[in-house]
Specification:
Blueprint lengths: L4 E4 L5 H11 L5 E4 L1 H7 L2 H8 L3 E8 L3 H13 L4 E5 L4 H18 L5 E5 L7 H6 L6 H15 L3 E3 L5 H8 L4 E4 L18 H7 L3 E4 L1 H4 L4 H12 L3
Parallel strand pairs: 1-2, 1-8, 2-3, 3-4, 4-5, 5-6, 6-7, 7-8
Helix pairs in contact: 4-5, 5-7, 7-8, 9-11
């Protein structure tokens, strides 16, 4: 279960991030680097995580014209990140060109290419938010629409709410990867995400990765919190 557990390094300085990685590396398989940390530190954060034996999920959520996103994604291949994401809203051509770019860059460098995920609908959004944006689908329906397009364009999987995992797997195949934020252990505090689920429920749905941040980071004993989540994932 360790390899399925992604810890969100939602901090803004290198020292704190390094301390968390060293503290949790034996209990977490993947460390998520988002915009806050990357903006503050830059690619040195990737090197540090890998040096400490962790895998990197570069949560960049790129969304721009196809050439810009494809070029930025080539750079990520150089840093040996295991997973990165782009917004499905960027469209078919953006995803297609990104996949082609990372395939090409990995081949040139003799490296394994990173897993390419497309962000569907943010877990902070609800059906009401869909209506406000004049999208004539529920959040769940829109996730599937975007996921189908992303798969056709060459994405390996999607970032989605755990509530959509079954829908994704049933329609796009069990090998289509799902990475799910919005994970909240029953004992943790509530956050700002609306489409949430417990670690065990997400694993039972068949998700490939679960992202946990605050329930571990805010715990008095982070290692014990991580162990508790692993136990919960295993059904203990």
């Amino acid at each position: 279960m360790k390899e399925k557990l992604v810890f969100a390094l939602d901090v803004s300085n290198f020292e704190e991030a390094e301390s968390l990685v060293k503290e949790l590396k034996d209990y977490v398989g993947v460390f998520k680097v988002g915009k806050e940390l990357f903006t503050a530190v830059g690619p040195d954060i990737f090197k540090m995580i890998i040096k400490n034996g962790g895998n990197v999920f570069a949560d960049m959520k790129y969304n721009d014209i196809p050439n810009t996103v494809a070029s930025a994604s080539r750079v990520l291949v150089n840093y040996d990140v295991q997973i990165f994401n782009i917004h499905a809203n960027g469209g078919y051509e953006m995803i297609k060109q990104t996949r082609e770019a990372i395939d090409d860059e990995a081949k040139k460098l003799g490296k394994k290419r990173p897993v390419l995920l497309a962000v569907t609908v943010l877990t902070s959004l609800s059906d009401e938010d869909m209506k406000m944006m004049n999208i004539n689908e529920t959040a769940k329906e829109h996730v599937l629409t975007l996921a189908k397009m992303a798969k056709d364009a060459g994405a390996d999987g999607v970032v989605c709410s755990p509530q959509e995992v079954t829908l994704i797997k049933e329609n796009l195949g069990s090998d289509f990867i799902t990475l799910t934020p919005g994970i909240r252990p029953a004992w943790s505090v509530k956050g700002d995400q609306k489409r949430i689920m417990t670690p065990r429920e997400a694993v039972e749905k068949g998700t490939n990765y679960i992202v946990v941040g605050r329930p571990i980071k805010a715990a008095e004993n982070r290692v014990e919190a991580a162990k508790k989540i692993l136990d919960e994932m295993e059904g203990k």
